[in-house]
Amino acid sequence: MVATASSDWRCTLVGDNIRVTSQEEKYSAIVEDTDLESPVISSLIPTKTALDPMKYDYVALFIGANYCPHCRDLAPTIVKVAPILETMKRCKVIFVSCDRDEENFEQSCRKIEGIDVMPYDLEKTRAMRDMFGLATIPAFMILKNMDFDASAPTVVSNARQKLVADQMCIGFPWSVEMMSASTVKNVISFNERIIIQGKWGRWYQLGHYANPEKPDAMYMDEHAVRIRGGILNIITWIALMNVLFLEQKAIVYTIFPLVFFEMLTASTFGLTPIAPIGTFASLITPIFWSEPNWKPAKPKRFAWWIGLFMVTLYFTVFSLREYINNYKVYIIVIVSIFNLATWLESAAGFCVGCFMYNQFVVPAFKLEECSECKITVVVNTEQL
């Protein structure tokens, strides 16, 4: 999206015309009536008229699609908040469709009736997402309505999460600086730590929506994860002592269902509220740390899938011990690997599964690399 010296980034971004859906706004310069069969779209007006800088200081782009469940969930909030933004905050709201075809585009328009719409143009939408660096939708981009001869607009924030939390728009325009500061503070109640709710998400999801700059990314409290790792490490020591000295079946039949259930529920629903060890760790974490240390949840899920496989393998070998020569050796190896992994997690803060996720899963499936999970190695060249 390279602009010429005489171009206007607003037209480059959304096209020369905007489809007006608001029945309250009246423009004198209507360029073209749209299909009368459409119950949503009423007219087209020039983009420069719709985004008149004398009337609006900001432009808000709601980028979504009909196939996206998060977009459908966010749409009613956008419709509710748009009049506040346009009348009180001098911010024009425009819907930008990422739908795969015009039929779904029209369905999206019906869900955000009352909001003006960028005409359907997938090429412009793709260019827009590349410009803003959007890996996921929905997004709610706040742009400054100024410097029209610039090659690109000034982005204030991607305010999707802030919009949901601040529906009266008191903190508008939710600048990146303010969002980053709130991310660092991590203000969260004890109940919200244990039961994900409100702006943090829903109770059954893997983690919290804790980073406004990555509104679709879920996070876990690393403090709770490490305490959980320490508890699991103690359990592995019990398992090792049992196979080496105690040889009590009751211990195996106690450890296996507990750890299996923990790994299964934690990798499905996150640390809380179903996983017993994760929930206990989350309950005691505020005693030691008042603020969470958020880390991405997806790599943790992968790590716990590996843990689920390991504990299943452990019980399988134990169950088939009469048919396996030197079965204790296999159990010792399995439990020792689990022991080392949980020790590294709890004592050193190094997640083996997260490392494997970045090194193998990401390149194999062309996923987005978890930069927040990467280990940075600093080499002192003066000693070389």
Describe this structure in words.
The protein is α+β, with helices and mostly antiparallel strands. It is elongated. Helix 4 (102-111) links the parallel strand 5 and strand 6 (116-117). The strands form three sheets. Strands 6-5-4-7-8 form a five-stranded mixed beta sheet, sandwiched between helices. A three-stranded antiparallel beta sheet has the order 1-3-2. Strands 9-10 form a two-stranded antiparallel sheet. The protein has helices at 9-14, 47-50, 69-88, 102-111, 122-132, 160-165, 176-185, 190-194, 222-246, 249-269, 276-288, 298-319, 327-348, 352-365, and strands spanning 17-20, 32-33, 43-46, 58-64, 91-97, 116-117, 139-144, 155-158, 219-221, 294-296.
